[in-house]
Design goal:
- 40% of the residues lie in helices and 19% in strands.
- The protein is α+β, with helices and mostly antiparallel strands.
- Strands 1-2-3 form a three-stranded antiparallel β-sheet, covered by helices on one side. The protein has a two-stranded antiparallel sheet with strand order 4-5.
- Helix 1 crosses helix 2.
- It is extended.
Length: 172
């Protein structure tokens, strides 16, 4: 947890006639440390969930809930990358398409961890496509090496990410 974040858990059994005694509702009040949403009250964010999982501590259930949200973010990224529809007619061709999308998703998952910093790290695939992957450059071969030359006015997120990727060891 961040140094300036404050969090608290609350739990109580559900009190409606339709819910059985093993249903629980849990809430978490924390200081987001991020951009505020319209639903945040006084700079504090309240998140709630209901569960019927018995015998587990509420902190463990809340962690499971947040990890599920991260998985849903990956699914949204997969749809934005090419899983929204299968563009080809043959099953074998679509299987190749799915392999390509899977490689792209692996790159989208690893690149922010290895190369991007600051405000560029949480960018969604659409934002990456417009800001990073559509950069105009010139591929130059000199001295048996290939170099990518970019204009000097490109933002530091792009040039810094490419420099950090170039410093990684060659896996093969």
């Amino acid at each position: 947890m961040r140094g300036n974040a404050h969090a608290g858990f609350g739990e109580r059994p559900a009190e409606t006639d339709r819910w059985q005694h093993w249903h629980r509702a849990a809430g978490r009040l924390n200081h987001p440390g991020a951009q505020l949403r319209i639903t945040d009250a006084d700079g504090m964010r309240l998140t709630c969930f209901a569960t019927n999982t018995p015998g587990r501590p509420i902190a463990e259930l809340e962690l499971r809930h947040r990890l599920r949200a991260r998985a849903e973010d990956r699914i949204r990224a997969a749809r934005a990358t090419g899983l929204r529809n299968l563009p080809l007619h043959d099953t074998a061709q679509n299987q190749v398409w799915l392999e390509i999308v899977q490689i792209a998703l692996d790159l989208l998952a690893w690149m922010p961890m290895l190369a991007l910093t600051g405000r560029a790290r949480p960018w969604e695939p659409r934002h990456l496509r417009f800001r990073l992957f559509s950069v105009a450059g010139q591929l130059v071969t000199t001295g048996r090496r290939r170099l990518l030359r970019l204009a000097r006015h490109w933002p530091s997120e792009i040039t810094g990410a490419l420099e950090r990727l170039a410093l990684l060891p060659n896996p093969g």
